[in-house]
Amino acid sequence: MTAMNKIKEKDLVREKFDGLTKEVLNWECLNVYSFFKGDISKKSEIEIIQGYAKATNDLFNCFYQDNHIFDGHSAVFREDTQAYPFVFLCRHTLELLIKHMSSVFSIEYDASHKLEKLWQPLQQELKKKENGIKPEDMSNFNVLVKAISKLDPNGMQARYTKSKDSTMYKSKPVFIQSKLINAILQRMVDVMLNIDYVKEENENETGN
Predict the structure, then answer these.
(1) Is the dihedral of CA 145, 118, 192, 48 positive or negative?
(2) Which residues contact 125 (CB under 8 A, 6 or more apart)?
C-alpha cells in the first residue's frame, strides 16, 4: 500500500469551492439536483435509487465474472464475500424504491424497514390501476421482495454477522441465484420509475 501525505477533512469532503475551477473536476458531486430550482426532493430520490441500482449491478458483474468462467457454471465453490454487500445493496434499493413509489401514490408508511410490510399496500394499489405492468413482471417483483425479505428480514443480516444479543446470523449455508435476483431488481427499478415518469407527465398535461 502506497503511503500518503497527511490529509485534512477538507481534502475528503467539501460543500463548496471558490468558483468552478479545474480542481472541481477531481471531485464527485453528490445530489446534482441541488443545483436546480424547484422541487428537487423527488428528483433526488430517483437519483439515489438509480445510483444504488447501478451499484448493485456493477458489484454483481464484478463477483459473477470472477466466479463463473463459463456463464451459468460456477468455477469456484466458496462463500463470496462480495455477495453480502450485493444483498445489502439489492435490499436497500428495493426499500428506497418502494418508499418512493408509495409517496407517488400517496400511500402513508411508517419508519419500518420490513420490505413485505412496505410492499403490500403499494402492491395492492398497483393492482387497482392500469399502469402497464405485465402480470409476469408483477409476479416476479412480488417474489423478489419475499426472497430478499427472507434473506434479510429487518435490514440487519446483510450488514452484520450477529444480532444485539450475539446470535449469529450466518450459522447455516444459504445459496442465492444472483444473476436472476439482479435481473429482476433492474427490471423493477426501470418499470417503477417509468410509472412515476408517466404519472408526472399526465398530471402536468391535466394541469395545463
Answers:
(1) negative
(2) 105, 107
Q: Which DSSP state fits 162?
A: B
The Cα 126–Cα 134 span in angstroms is 11
Q: How many CB atoms lie within 10 A of CB 84?
A: 19
In tens digits, the chain (208 residues) has pLDDT values of 677 889 999 888 988 877 777 888 888 888 777 777 666 667 788 989 999 999 999 999 988 877 776 665 555 555 567 888 999 999 999 999 999 999 999 999 888 889 999 999 999 999 887 778 999 999 999 999 999 999 988 887 777 777 788 777 677 778 889 999 999 999 999 999 998 666 665 566 555 5
Residue 93 · residue 50 · CB < 8 Å: no
- Whether the Cβ atoms of residue 60 and residue 83 lie closer than 8 Å to each other: no
Output phi, psi for 73, to 5 deg: -130, 120
* Residue whose C-alpha cell is 433526488: 44
- Best CA proximity match to 144, nearest among 208, 75, 204, 192: 192
Compute CA 156 distance to the chain's CA centroid, rounded to the nearest angstrom. 15
Q: Are 99 and 194 in contact (CB under 8 A)?
A: no
121 backbone dihedrals φ, ψ, rounded to 5°? -65, -35
Q: How far is the C-alpha of 154 from the C-alpha of 113, rounded, in Å?
A: 6
CA distances from 120 to 10, 40, 54, 60, 133 (A): 44, 27, 25, 27, 16
The cell numbers describing 55, all together, are: 451499484
